[in-house]
Structure formats: structure tokens, C-alpha cells
User: What shape does this take?
Amino acid sequence: MKKVAFEHIGETVFEKKLANGLQVVILPKPDFNKTFATFTTNYGSIDNQFIPIGKQEKIRVPDGIAHFLEHKLFEKEDGDVFQDFSKQGASANAFTSFTRTAYLFSTTQDVKQNLMTLLDFVQEPYFTDQTVEKEKGIIGQEIRMYDDNPDWRVYYGVIENMYENHPVKIDIAGTVESIAEISKELLYECYETFYHPSNMLLFVIGPVNENKILHLVEENQAKKSFKPEQPIQRFFEREKSGVVQKKQVISMAVKTPKCLVGFKENQVNRQGKEWIEHELAVNLLLDLMFGQSSANYETLYEQGLIDSSFFYDYTEERSFGFSVIGGNTEQPEKLSETLLNMVNEFRKKKINEDEFLRVKRKHLGAVLRSLNSLEFIANEYTRYQFNDTNLFHVTKAIEDLTIEDVETVLHEHFVEPSFTACYVVPH
Amino acid sequence: MALLEKRTEIYPHYRVHVVPINKFKTISLIVHMRQSIKDENLAKRALMPYVLQSATENLPSAKEIRQHLEQLYGMTLSVDLMKKGDYHVIAFRAEIGHEKFLLTEENILEKAVELLADVILRPKGRIEKAFDPEVVRKEKRSLKQKIQAIYDDKIRYANMRLIEEMFENDPYGQIVYGNLEEIDAIDEHSLFTYYEQALVRDSIDLYVVGDVSHHDIQPLIKKHFTFPPERKEHVHAASQSNLLLHRDAKEVIDEQEVNQGKLNIGYRTNTRFQDEDYSALQVFNGIFGGFSHSKLFINVREKESLAYYASSQIESHKGLLIVMSGIDPANYQLTLAIIREQMEKMKRGDFTDDELLQTKTMLVNQWLESVDDPRGIVNFLYNEIIANRTASLDDMIQGIERVTREDVVNVAKKIELDTIYFLKGKEAGKVEKSSV
Assistant: This one.
């Protein structure tokens, strides 16, 4: 087991890659009451074209199947795994993102038993025709719930505008029609391919002893047999640079319109240090351009174009990347034009050194704040590992970032051909 | 050892609660200002903190305040409004990185205390006795937008409508933001007058959570938190919140262009935080709808596939139990019948020993986990103030452990159906009303 101490933030991590390929990471936090564990596969809603393990032919699976699989793993022949966890004093949950599916629990008692339950339920699938059919009703209601959520709709609207083929534009849960095509055979095929231990990471954080935890996990894994590790072949159709559609308007039962604009990242598949630096650079630029301390924010707020719902965010994962900016507004069209103008103006000027240093300080503090949360550490550590780097390198990366780095990203990412907008307006 | 150490000091003007705890990488400073919602202009009360956080004497614009926050390593400062029983609570929350993790020579903790005190006590316009009219104008608009935003979030909207219907004749029925007409009527003078009153009348509690000693933080607070001389009485013990009186159950159906129907049901529990049987009520809620092993989740979602979410929660100070579910409108009667049947089962004691034990374990878990988060700690400690009952975390946990099956049945029998609220789509066709 490898021990890595990150003294600057007072954390020590223990890591080991097991014989079957499973990556195990343990972070002892003796002062906390709860232990939080995540078991994550590097597989999400975008992985819809691949060669199934042990086969030759590429297949395309129905939209929403990764999320469906996440729901279905909780059901076993003798009942529901949620029940097992709560009998053992743990609350369990799971989520599916574009690129990851995570199963998790938190508990203040019996970590050992709950950890075994977590490993076993994820590694012992049980799907029948009948239980697959039943789940379609529940997920159908989940999809309906999001259909009524204007924030969700405007977010997907802007992504849809950016991409021609890339599956990131498809709702993670799929549609009522697409999930109708899901069968137990397809679920098994996805499962066998993407839930191989070598594609997964187990993270345990809390008042635990690293040696005991590792021993338990090794013992559990040694009892199970898996196919030999083999690289997964996933396929994404080529995306041209620039966006597909400049504007989309969605009409819904809302009182306040919404406007979200986005910039599509054209260069994708960064990993490691390059990925962290790029993500940080875009985030720092967003702060400089539209943070609450910026002149632009003040102007937008004064003109009544934005309110406290205004936000921005950058997401970059394997094969796609985009930033989004916006929120509730009385004048979506005007907000969209103003945001684009502001970006264009910002690109013409030099970045102010003092502002740059201030925004870096802000990010350093934000890292500390987020490290109060065990959930944050587990989820983000996993995300960073899947992008071939370490969460705790982020403070160093912030310190090392230069104005020149940020300016390069400004001229590559925040350009007009990559710009698009989506509005939600009242009926 | 107690699960949570804290030290409370009562000053002439306010109380300070320090929780010295070294598991966090930040220090949290949280101020709660509390006032009874009865006869209160909630719009003024809601607008005030947003105006305060936008301009101080030292930093006369939101931009300057935000720049200062960034300079202090991204210190956060935010405002929140809550209803806690019959009280309206304004929370100012600040959080700053601990100096030991930041390579800085500045005393950033003192600067954080100073800024928070400036926001609350030394706003721009203090001498003129009027806030900046531009700030008031902008924040009025922003507050109105917050009210409108509730309509757009159908889950929140349905919940607001239910509370409105349950409390049509009780000030608790209002939302924390006040109403649009009241907001329109506010100007920079009337708001300042309200602010001066609030500084004199409100009960104020200041919480400090993080790796800092009482000894170090106390002088900083004393130095920067200087209240007006008129403020004499610091803390009034909270009076008990009124329970809703018994009445016949009613059913309300609203229509909007939505895909999913939102079924929210309100019950009167007749049990509050300070009551002996509060622990039993928590266990009741856990078996009934609080968890994924609960009756609602199992019967509405897992067995019948009627919903993605189906759960219940309790309001601890006003004595409410709220059931929430998102369903296909065609299944309205069926879902309602299943939910009501689960309630009847609870009253009959039709639950297993496993369900009881499992729920108690989960509740203990929840209490222990709540203090792994600075805000969770403050919420926990503040409940004591609102309920005027001293209860340590250890007491709460022991209370849960002592609950028996009979206690749960007895507390269930006190629960009464008050209002069934259903929000449905316009195309959904006619929904048969139920016979409540």
C-alpha cells in the first residue's frame, strides 16, 4: 500500500491497485463521526457505443441505460439493497453522470459490514425481465420530474445546441421511449463491459484504520473471479469544432424567463496536469469576467439583467467540455447579447495582475472549504483519478498558474464560433 | 466525553456560542436574528439583510465587499431566511479558510469578524439614517424575483401552496420573503427604521465553529460587535409556537401546464421539539416516510412504481408532518389511498420490530452525521434556542434509543390529516376528488 502525505492541506492518503485491477483509496479522518464510501465505475451516460467485453462487433445501446443499470443494481433476488444498508445503520445512494456511475453509503457504525454490502451488491447483478419492466415506471416519473424543471431543460438545451452527435447532449436518464427498449440482456452486456474491477475505484474516508479496510477489501475481492482485464473500446463520432445551433427557445409554465449561454470547448481529451490546468484556467477566467467582484457583474445586476440565480460553470471530461453562464432574467435575448459582448471586450484587454492574484486567493480558499466535506473529497478524488491526476494537486496548480496560461485559454475557449444560447420563456 | 463541546457566553446584548473543533479546514461565523412572525412586516425583514450585505460604511458597494472577500482567501458571506416555528430567522453566514493552511501573515480571522460586524452594524447610510436608494431598488427587484422563482420550481411551489392552505388564518402561512405589495411599499427610509428596530428588538445569537479557542475569538467579537445603546434586553426566551387547531381535513387541487402531478399532504402532529414524545415522532417519521426503507418509499415507489420520490418530513417547531410525492395525475386516487393506508398502519402499530430497530439506528446515524458539518452543528444548537429546551446531542441519541413501539403508536394516534394538496397538468383530464 502506498502512503502519500499532502502536508500543505493536512491529508494523508493510502492507495493500492489490487490484483484484479481495482483501485482502492483510503483516507483516514479520525475526528469525524461518519465514514463515507464510494464505489465508482468510469462509465456514464455518454458511453453508448462500445465493443462488449469478449466480442468483436461495436454496438450502440439505448439512451439512459447507464442510469437504468444504476437503479437496477439495487434490486436483488431476496429484495432491495437499500434495506440491507438501513438495517446496518447506513444510508446508501447512487448517481450517474455523463462519465461516471457511483454507488455510495455513509454510516457511523459497522463500516465493515456496510463495505462488504457495497462491494457485493455492485459486483453481483441480478436482472429479470419482470424487474426491468417495473423500473420503467419509476424512471418514467423521474424523467417527468426533470421535464418540469426549467433549470434542467435550459441546461440540456444549451448542450444540445453545441453538439451534433456527441451523446453528452442526451439526458442522462434517457427518454420514456428510449428506456422502453432496455432489456436485461442489454443491461448484462453493459455491466460485464464497464463494471470490471479494472474500470473501478473504491474510496473510503472517515474514522477508519487503513490496514484493516484494505485487508477486508482484498479478502472480499479474492473470493470473486473476473474475466482478465482488457482495455475498453468506446466510440464517439467526430464532432466538428464550433456549435451546431446558435439559439434555442423553450416554452414552459414559468413566470421568470431563463437564459443560459455556453462556449463549447473544441480541444478535448486532456488528461493529468494539462486537464487540471485547463479546467482551472477556464474557471479563473469565468471569475475574472463574471464573478461577483467584477465590473461586468455589477453592470449586469444594475441593469436588472441578472439576479441572485446567476451562475457559471465549466465541465470538462473525456471527449467533451463546455462552459455555461446565465440564470433567471426578464430579458433573455438582451442578456445573451450582453454576455457575448462582454466576453468579446474582455478578450481585447490585458488581464489585470491584482485581479488575477485576488481570484487565485479565492480559489485557494474555496478548495479548503470544500475539503470540509467527506462527500466532496470522495467524489472529486475519484473524478481526478479517472482523469489521471490527483485532487490534492489542485492547490499547487492554482499557485503555479500564470496570466499567460490563462490568456491562452481565453483566446481558445471564449470565441464566438463556440458560443450558443438557450432560453426558457413563459407560454 | 460529550459528543459536541461548546461554550456559551451571555452578554448584555447577545449570546455567543463557540464550538472549538479541529476537524474542519475553515472557521464558520454564523449570526441568527430572530423575531416572532406575528404582526411582522416580513417583506422588510426579508429585504433588510440583502441590503446590509450590499454596502457598508467602509466598503460602500457590493463590488468592493466582494473584492474584499476574495482578498480574504475567498471568504464566503451569505444571507438566508428561515421560518422556525412562529419565528422568522435571518441568518448571516460567513466562512473563512483557517490560517494554518494558508501562507499568509495577515490576521484574516479578525478581518472576517470585522467584516461580518460591519455588515450587520455599520451599513452605508448609518449617519443619514437611510440606506442607499439604489441598493434598495436593486434588492427589491431581486427579492421579487426570488418569490417568482418559487412558482417555477414545482416541487417548492406545491409545498408553498400546501402551507398556505394549511395556515390560511395563521401568520405561519406566509413565505419568508413577504409579499409583492409589501415589497413595493418599502423605501430606503422605512427600511432603515425597520432595521434600527430589529437591532434593538431581535434576539441575536452568534456561533463560531472551527479550530479556534474561546480565549482567542472572544476579544475579537467584543471589539467589533458593538450594539446600539438602546439594545438592553438581549435574549427573550422563545415562546412556544402555536399549534394548528383541530379542523376537518380539506382537499385542494390546482392546475398548471406541468407533466408530473405533485401530491403534497399536510398533517398536524401535535408534537413539538420540546415535547416528551418528540423522539417518538422522529421514529414515527422514519418508519413512515423519512428513509428509503420507509413505508412510503417501499409501497408507493418500490411496490407500485407510482413515483420516483415519495417521502415525509417533520417540522419540529410548528408540529407538522408533510408528505411529498411526484406522480402521474391518473394515479392520484390510488396513490392517496396507499399513503393513507400507511398512516393507518402506523396508528394500528402495524410495523415490524425490524422496521423499528432499523429506523432508530438510522436516526442515531443521522444525528451523529449532522455534526460532521459546521452548518449542521449550528442548526442543531439553534433548535434548543427556538424550543427553549436544553438538549445535548447525547440526550437526543439516548432519547431515540429509548423509544418503544407503544411510544410510536401513541405519537401516531396524535397525528391528524389537515390538507391534501394536488398540483396537476391541464391536459391530465378530470381528477376525481377524494372523500376526505
